[in-house]
Amino acid sequence: MRRSVFFRSFLVTTTMFAVCFILFGATMFFMGRAFLIREKQASLYATAAEVGRYAEAMHTEEELSSWELRMNLAAIAQSTGDHIFLCDPAGTVVSSSDRDLTADYIGREVPQAVVDTLAREGTYRGLTDLGGFYEGRYYVVAQPLADEDGAVIGYVFVNYAGSGFFGVWGGFMLLFVLIAAGMLAVAVAFEYANTRRLARPLNEMAEAARRFGRGDYSARVSPYEDEDEIGTLIDAFNTMADSLERNESRRREFIANVSHELRTPMTSISGFADGILDGTIPPSEERKYLQTISSESKRLGRLVRSMLDMSRLQDGDPARMERTFDLGEMVVQTLLSFEERVDAKRLNVELDMPEDALRVKGDVDSLTRVVYNLLDNAIKFAWEGTDLTVSVWKENGKAYTAVQDVGPTIPEEELALIFDRFHKADKSRSRDKDGVGLGLYMVRQILSSHGQDIFVTSKEGVTVFTFTLALADTGRANKEDADPAGARRPR
Under CATH, which number does the domain 318-486 receive? Predict the structure, then answer.
């Protein structure tokens, strides 16, 4: 069965939690047990020392078995929870902390090995039943009793039942296990919920990607409540989806427009050619229709070249963007190429240029195409005998170029669309039989590739296209901006 990455992550995280709790519990068990044993042994030694000092104050053997000493041992044992007994040097028990007058332990013998260890090492400790002395194992601590001369008069044994110790420790560990199990259950539940929360947007993205593969670009991922990496990924994914949807819409529009633009001249060429070949068009009219075929063929060629130019624009060389040139000189040279068309329309050309060279940064060839397209557009739609104004100035660290003509006013609702591919405004562009509707689109694409803007206004027959360029020397340009003569706008 296929498992998702988040399911595997959940299993890994849960396993890690469990292993951590087990390791922590084992560490707590062994370290805690060792600590409690050390503490209890220290307590046993302290009790043995206290009992020893009290017993040594009574010098004679008979006094070690006195009732008064037994009561004191019983009081100490009650407060500490230990079992205490005293034995003579031979290992016979002579007194104990039992309150019963007929204490079972009095008179019993301590194993000789224990007595020998005490005599040899001066102390004894261990977990033992003292050779059957106790029914179960006890933590035993023993040390000798001495008189004023240092002679051994007996031994004191302080003992704590191992079952009691392990009972307390077992209860503590049971409590720890219950708390740990509860914390583990809460952690697992939280991790499961968090895993599902993290998996939800990724599953949505996977489903959206599958829909993209089927051509449906309307899929989106639901917004994420947190501003973390997942939220950033979702925002980026939705932004990408918006871009894909726009590109797909533009692609379909582009194909539809290209199909329409290609179909019109091809239909004319095919229809007129067939008419000439089958004799429908009389010989006297053939020249006229051949000229139409030639015109439509040239228009078709311009459309293809424009599409190739757009493809080249998308593969521009970044190094060419960093070259510098004189903007005024480039504008003048481009304007001179329209001399015949300007004269044919009897246009009055006005140039408004700065006195000094205005150097800008960019691809001179593509920017020349910008100026060429704007001048071609302005001359094409300017009324005969009107003014054609070209202005160049600098302001706020940028160079500005404006091309102004007097002709049909572009409707306000068309201003936002004139830079789209194959768009022709109804009132001004419909009479343009030679254009293919790509000139202004190419202008915007070129300027966008340079990181620059273009603006258009059209009021009362005056249409102005203005675009910006980056100055080659920004520092120098900022100083010259203070000169009023350096900033001129078109009328």
Answer: 3.30.565.10
